[in-house]
Amino acid sequence: MPQAPRVLPGAESLYFPGGETAVLVCHGFLGTPQSVQYVCRQLAQNGFTVYAPRLQGHGTSYQDLRRFTHQDWIRDIHTAYRSLHAEHSRVFIAGQSMGGTLALHTAAFFQDAAGIALINPAIDVPEMERAVKQTSSAFIKEERPDIRTPQEEEITYSHVPTASVHSLLELTAAVRTQVPSISCPAFVAASRIDHVVPPANAVAIHENLSSSSKSFEWLEHSYHVATLDADRDFLAGRLSSWVSSVVAADSHNYIM
Known about the structure:
Helix 1 crosses helix 8 (232-255), helix 3 packs across helix 4 (98-109) and helix 4 (98-109) packs across helix 6. It contains eight helices and nine strands. The longest helix has 24 residues, at 232-255. The protein has helices at 37-45, 62-65, 70-87, 98-109, 126-133, 162-176, 200-208, 232-255, and strands spanning 14-16, 21-26, 49-52, 90-96, 115-119, 139-141, 159-161, 186-191, 214-219. With 256 residues, the chain is an alpha/beta fold. The strands form two sheets. A seven-stranded mixed β-sheet has the order 1-3-2-4-5-8-9, sandwiched between helices. Strands 6-7 form a two-stranded antiparallel sheet.
């Protein structure tokens, strides 16, 4: 039996036990739970149970990533959702970049999600489409992660399998059609300047969600990986407040 690839130090799944309300946090394409760790810890400090699973092929090597597709990542998140839902009265789903795409897919599949929080979510990534059309190579060289704060580092890969980009684009195309079917409370945040996913993605998602309760925040001081960037305190605070407000409203309606 082939040996499982080594997980890079710091790239492991994160789990913070807490109260009856749980938040499932999905990291982005090529990233790991390390990229969302700060926000996860802030949510946990507010009493929520928080789980950020490492998606298969991430946090190991870019050669390993080639073995997996978006179907594997969907299964990872669906399995995590079912696990949390079995033990908690409410489960929110949060995600950054492709994590937002997976969060949307999961909310469309599980109609009992308590709410969805999206940070620079991806449903249309023209730069990636151009990149795969312009190459015949099996791997594409990656630039430095799109983080405005120079001292912040993300655990990621130097190259990306072209096949993995194709799979990501298949996922975004499928999820685009699912957005109007989602009606749970929603929180959407977008970096004003994002060199990876155009901010128009977040705007379009916010407009097309069927949620009667939804809010939108612009992040003025961060690039794409906002959970590691200058707005992370603002973002973590707003996200925690939003989850608390949805829980409070839900509890009030239940009592009524």
